[in-house]
Design goal:
Shape: flat
CATH architecture of the largest domain: 3-Layer(aba) Sandwich
Number of helices: 19
Radius of gyration: 35 Å
Distance between the termini: 28 Å
Largest sheet: 9 strands, mixed
Helix content: 55-70%
CATH class of the largest domain: Alpha Beta
Mean pLDDT: 77
CATH superfamily of the largest domain: P-loop containing nucleotide triphosphate hydrolases
Strand content: 5-15%
Structural class: alpha/beta
Order of helices and strands: HHEHEEEHHEEHEHEHHEHHHHHHHHHH
Low-confidence stretches: 156-162, 464-493, 503-509, 511-518, 636-641
Length: 641
């Protein structure tokens, strides 16, 4: 990385971050100082991280495939798996490595490129997806020189785990490409809320409107998206003016319409030697404009990265303000100042007590998760049992039943393994939705929950035997088997006698009676075997459901306890801080006049320093915003500028 201009915004930003770091240390807030230290560590990374985010079916995976020139590289029309992201970076060859987080530590496993969907998409193998944190793909393409593209799970509102992973990725992002589709509905509320979160962490944001090739009105849809964004930002800033600094830049972010389909067609024409047609399609695809922005981010990564540091510094300064104001109030000659600050602290403590009450009520509601888990398991198991029962009803002979029985145990085992993955996914999403709502109600950040690669409980395979009594030649029911057959034989024998005479009766009646006897016995044997198999299946699936429910209830209970403990620790930490401030304020009146003046002067000096640093931070943010806006701008006279 080149040495920044000592008078430029990046160099001034680094000096600014050092000053805020030093102030936090002087105030005894090493916890806050560490926040800035972590941000500073990213300056050593020579690779620009660009997160690609958006709701499902917005075209982001196909967009990435087109950018790197491999149409089949990443799974298209299959959402990225929960708790997983895909990394594309430059390397000498096309390779893929799965990164897992296990109890014994991180594990890296090389895989074939063709098997990426098995590990990284929701349509893949659930067993292979377990514990996967990321899939790192390398390929030799110039676009990725100094760039790393990160494909993230969809940010749909119903997919809580997906949204968490994507928001977490923004902590390491230098830029964000947010995808919307010209063939889909306009931007939705949950997407706008995600963008608001993103703007607090990332300053370099580009909107990419995909799939414009088949949309006759993509321009009007783009304008509607802009209008919705403008309304959202206006309302949010009206409710909280402090958000203007982070939200208003969204209104100036560039919009780039692109078509992966046209770009792929351009490459096909180029291979055919139709260069002029290829150039026309490529220009229409918008990919050159998007690539120019990406290269701009790589070349100006310091400016893009600086926004994260400024945001962290401003957050630290805000946290330092309360302590400084307490010292000013404690050193005041007017006892009313101390009283007012005490009242504020007491009000916060009261609010904390109310939160504790909500925590208890929420914990009670969380206990019902177990019942919902049982419902999910029962519904899913019933779904796979019904086709078996339907199939059994179609089997008309004992030979068919015997063949079916030979294949049944393995078939059922495969079905159970498949449905287990879906059940775990359903339960995971249910728990995340419920427990994160609980956390949000207490003012906590979303929590990370993972099914930690749970294997299906050990289950006994289905073992079913037919009606053995039906196979015993000595086991004959006179009333059920013999009399009806004899009666029908005599009836048919009488008909034969009328046609053929007494000889006909003697020959036909016993034969027909025997045939009816054997046919009826065979039919009833099949029916009894069918009933036996159905009964055994129901019993087996009932056992399966109980075992699965018990295992998943334990898993959810562990999550619930973990989230509630986190809530307790957070509430306790906040209470301890407030009680410490209250104690300091209460003892202020016992200090000497000189000590009070000294405390007041110290607080006033810190408030002045904080105000100055805050103003400088906002100015730096504006400068960096201007620098970021220029990163992808085309030079004068460039086509598409």
């Amino acid at each position: 990385m080149t040495t920044p201009d000592p008078n430029g915004p990046v160099a001034r930003l680094l000096r600014y971050a050092n000053e805020v770091h030093a102030l936090a240390g002087r105030c005894g807030r090493e916890d806050l100082a560490k926040v800035l230290a972590a941000c500073a560590g990213r300056w050593k990374d020579e690779c620009t991280d660009i997160v690609v985010a958006g709701a499902q079916k917005r075209g982001k995976s196909r967009l990435l495939n087109t950018l790197v020139g491999h149409p089949d590289l990443l799974p298209v029309d299959a959402d990225v798996a929960t708790n997983c992201f895909l990394s594309l970076r430059r390397g000498p060859a096309l390779t893929a490595v799965v990164h897992r987080s296990t109890d014994s530590g991180p594990v890296q496993t090389p895989i074939t490129v063709e098997s990426i969907p098995d590990y990284a998409s929701m349509r893949g193998d659930a067993g292979k997806r377990r514990d996967v944190v990321s899939v790192d793909v390398t390929l030799d393409t110039p676009l990725l020189d100094g760039l790393r593209l990160l494909d993230t799970p969809g940010v749909d509102s119903l997919t809580v785990g997906h949204r968490q992973v994507t928001v977490a990725m923004l902590q390491r992002a230098d830029a964000l490409l947010f995808t919307l589709s010209a063939q889909d509905q306009p931007v939705l509320r949950h997407e706008l809320e995600f963008l608001a979160e993103a703007a607090e962490r990332v300053q370099a944001i580009v909107f990419v409107l995909t799939k414009v090739e088949d949309s006759a009105n993509w321009q009007s849809l783009q304008e509607e998206n802009k209008a919705r964004l403008r309304t959202f930002v206006t309302q949010a800033v009206a409710e909280n003016p402090a958000r203007a600094a982070t939200l208003c830049p969204l209104l100036e972010a560039p919009w780039i319409p692109v078509s992966s389909k046209l770009a792929e067609a351009a490459e096909a024409r180029r291979r055919e030697g139709r260069q002029e047609r290829a150039d026309t399609l490529r220009a229409r695809s918008g990919m050159d404009v998007l690539e120019r922005h990406l290269r701009g981010f790589a070349e100006g990564r310091d400016s893009a990265r600086g926004a994260t540091v400024v945001a962290a510094a401003l957050s630290v300064l805000g946290a330092l303000t309360a302590g400084a104001e307490d010292d000013v109030a404690a050193g005041s000659d007017d006892e009313g100042d101390v009283t007012a600050r005490l009242a504020e602290v007491e009000a916060e403590l009261t609010g904390l007590a109310e939160l504790a009450g909500r925590r208890r009520a929420g914990a009670v509601a969380n206990t019902f998760l177990g019942r919902e888990v049982a419902g999910i398991v029962a519904a899913r198991v019933a779904e796979i049992r019904q086709p078996y029962e339907n199939a059994i009803a179609t089997l008309k002979t004992q030979a068919q039943l015997d063949k079916y029985m030979a294949e049944l145990p393995e078939s059922v085992q495969r079905s159970l393994e498949a449905v287990w993955s879906q059940i775990v996914y359903d339960v995971e999403n249910l728990a995340k939705g419920t427990l994160n709502a609980f956390a949000r109600d207490l003012g906590l950040d979303p929590v990370e929950l993972a099914a930690d690669g749970r294997a299906m409980p050990s289950l006994t395979q289905v073992q079913v035997k037919g009606d053995l009594a039906a196979d015993d030649p000595g086991h004959v029911d006179l009333v059920r088997d013999v009399l009806p057959a004899s009666s029908m034989g005599l009836s048919f024998g009488g008909l034969a006698a009328a046609l053929l005479g007494p000889v006909g009766f003697i020959l036909v009646a016993p034969a027909i009676g025997a045939a009816i006897f054997l046919g009826r016995r065979s039919l009833e044997k099949v029916q009894r075997s069918q009933a036996a198999i159905r009964g055994a299946l129901r019993d087996q699936f009932a056992v399966v459901a109980r075992e699965m429910t018990l295992d998943l209830e334990r898993m959810v209970a562990t999550w619930r306890v973990g989230v509630e403990q986190t809530a307790d620790e957070s509430l306790m930490r906040r209470r301890k801080e407030l009680e410490g401030r209250r104690a300091e304020l209460k003892t202020a009146s016992t200090r000497s006049a000189a000590d009070r003046r000294k405390a007041r002067q110290s607080g006033e000096d810190r408030i002045t320093a904080i105000a100055s640093l805050t103003a400088r931070g906002h100015e730096l943010r504006k400068e960096l915003a201007a620098a970021v806006a220029a990163l992808g701008a085309a030079p004068a006279g460039t086509p598409g500028s």
